[in-house]
Amino acid sequence: xxxxxxxxxxxxxxxxxxxxxxxxxxxxxxxxxxxxxxxxxxxxxxxxxxxxxxxxxxxxxxxxxxxxxxxxxxxxxxxxxxxxxxxxxxxxxxxxxxxxxxxxxxxxxxxxxxxxxxxxxxxxxxxxxxxxxxxxxxxxxxxxxxxxxxxxxxxxxxxxxxxxxxxxxxxxxxxxxxxxxxxxxxxxxxxxxxxxxxxxxxxxxxxxxxxxxxxxxxxxxxxxxxxxxxxxxxxxxxxxxxxxxxxxxxxxxxxxxxxxxxxxxx
Length: 266
Fold this sequence. Notes:
Oligomer: single chain
Largest sheet: 6 strands, mixed
Shape: globular
Structural class: alpha/beta
Order of helices and strands: EEEHEEEHHHEHEHEEHH
Strand content: 25-35%
Radius of gyration: 19 Å
Helix content: 25-40%
Distance between the termini: 42 Å
Mean pLDDT: 86
Strand order of the largest sheet: 6-7-8-3-9-10
């Protein structure tokens, strides 16, 4: 394992197979992630970015190659990797507080019940949902449920946080708040984050490095040399932002980029 790397992906391939066909979703991908890095994987639907995250989470097994975390080969899910998917996945029979406490127990299991409640309250307050701690998922909006899922993942206190377009179902104002929240907490707690998105703005706001994928492969890696955490109002409109946005747009849209060149969002 190279010094400083927490994740090492080597010659990784994965195929979806049914009785009639085989589809190569990931093809010979290589990637190294240093401890504390925030990596955004950017790409269009169907490019393999969510498959890559599921492989990192240990929910799928590679057809070829390997994934190592802290030098250990990933053979399945583990508490060293917390996951937030695009669609919230809360336990409907547990109230909000108990859903977060479940994450706390999975990650540590050594807290007293009083400490668990205190920690759950802190994470729920961080995502703005302390007032609904006693409610059940069915009583919440979709955006609220996803915020609980984020709180539960943070409560696991894993070194690595894997996030698959976690804010896609949330309204724009709250989405920005949660982007800045995750950016701040990941910096404060020195978490390593792999964040899947198809939103260029979101990637620039959050990432230390942006990986652009084309179907099955990594097309481009772009370092974002801006201090974290970031606030959107301080970023958008700067020359650094405009140059990054243009570069990523050209890569993302490839041949279609000429049609929107110069239309950088301000």
